[in-house]
Amino acid sequence: AALFEKVTYTLTVEGANGTCFGSGDYPAGTSVEISAVAGSGYKFVMWSDGNTDNPRTITTTSANATYTALFEEVTYTLTVYAEHGEVEGGNMSYTSGAEVTLTAVPDEGYFFVMWEDGSADPQRVVTVDADMYLTAYFEKDIVTDIEGVTSGDVVVRVRGNNIEVESADRYAVYNLSGSKIADTTNLPSNVLRYAFTAYSFLKVLPH
Fold first, then answer.
1. Which of 11, 13, 104, 170 minimizes the number of CB atoms within 10 Å of its CB?
2. Contacting residues for 149 by C-beta, under 8 A, at least 6 apart
3. How many CB atoms lie within 10 A of CB 45?
4. 108-128: per-residue pLDDT in tens?
5. To which H or E segment does residue 197 belong?
6. 3-state secondary structure 111-171
């Protein structure tokens, strides 16, 4: 007696930067579900024949066939905003996990205050793992009289994060609770920056 075996054809499902399923040997006319799973940092785009269904069902023919999944890197956009200054860096698309350095630069007559997420560092590194939006805030660098001076001849002004005292040889700075922050004629900027960040009100008392 004559022996016959069913003719099968090879179906290859492949793609770089991902894992594909459905490869095997099938008789012509077999319905096969094929699928593609993108690797880390990539996303599925389409199959080599232009079909975008994933998974999809194909019918094998009487010939070997190859279906190639096409993947592309995932990118995110980092958008930055600033008024009365500018931000160096950002406003581009980046691959997932990219580290981007942002620098807030004030216009003349302004000073950097903070980023909208609370960071007070004018230069920072941001890890981009989603579409992100960041605003840098600046304030006008003006001289303003402040209250709390006990001597009529002494003038106290604040310019940005700096205290200016006129007509006093020595002075002390207290917070609202009465604790002395500094006692000097030349307050270092790090003390003042800390003071203005931590307290909503300062008293400057000549002595």
1. 170
2. 155, 156, 204, 205, 206
3. 14
4. 878 888 999 989 899 999 999
5. helix 189-198
6. EEEEECCCCCCCEEEEEECCCEEEEEEEEECCEEECCCCCCCCCEEEEECCEEEEECCCCE
